[in-house]
Amino acid sequence: MSKQKVLLGMSGGVDSTAAALLLQRQGYEVIGATLRLQDEATEASGHALRDIGDARAAADKLGIRHIILDWRSRFREKVLDYFAAEYDRGRTPNPCVVCNPTVKFPALLEAADREGAAYIATGHYARIIPEPRTGRHRLCRALSPARDQSYALFGLSPAWLPRILFPLGDCDKPQVRELAAQAGLAISQKADSQDICFVPDGDYGAFLERYTGSPGPSGSFVDTRGNILGRHKGIRHYTVGQRKGLGVSLGAPAFVERIDAATGSITLSGGENLFTGTLFARPVNWLASAEPEHPFPVQAKVRYAHSPQPATVCLQRDGGVRVEFAEKQRAVTPGQAVVFYDRDELLGGGLIL
Fold first, then answer.
1. What is the DSSP string of 32-94?
2. Topology of domain 217-269, CATH
3. Fewer CB near the terminus (10 Å): N or C of the chain?
4. pTM, whole model, 2 decimals?
């Protein structure tokens, strides 16, 4: 009997390489696929091309076929243009939550169909748990809370879940590195990526200036009464709740409270107004079932590193949601995602307005 094929997204990192090893051990025929998402105009450091080379070398070591999927045009349209536009609106986007449902997973599914692969897989730390009785597949948090990446997956279509495998959902990072080391892979000690894949140095302002050819909207720092405190570098360089790198001295700790793209002004305060108990989000994607009909309790996260907090979700007529937290949350940031859980199950999420 021939093995079932699985098309694995290989990023050139240790996680996706370890996922290939685990899939091989489970008896799958693995095809490695690396997405080419950038060209020289947007990828000045050569980081992305090095990752493609690392993925190819790992695939060769494991004896699996490796292909490259060129999705540069779609990535530019759906992710890079969105990223730039959001910053110029005074918002703080999370490009991963947009890339996964519009680029990465569609690219893998399309290639899997061409290759005759029943499944796709990635190195995300998350779990998909089938329910034989109902036929439904639940997207759940990884067993390791420190590594869980389900937050970034809320935008996936429920129809895709039966075809997706997350081999690392039961693992933690030391296990993954040991697995790669035992297989003799040099990649086992490659450093984790700490920033957005297309901004490896973390300097979003410099990337956006290269990408758009413009420094972006500039303006003044103001206090909560509108008094001018000084000039800033441009609204792209700041996010709600930020304290470091403001470049102004007020004699007391100051935080970004609000960014007004229309005027270019950034309001600073002592942080007393950074806590809120309510947020609105739209659009919203539901994974667990059909859209709920009544207000319902959840555990909600408002950023990747945020601990889930008790909240109630109320549907709005415009298709969005109002989220009421049991306790006020700090620095709820427009452009980021709010994601809803029922224990370990990911119910859905949306973009914070």
1. EEEEE---TTT-TTSHHHHHHHHHHHHHHHHT-EEEEEE-HHHHIIIIIHHHHHHHHTT----
2. SH3 type barrels. (2.30.30)
3. N
4. 0.93
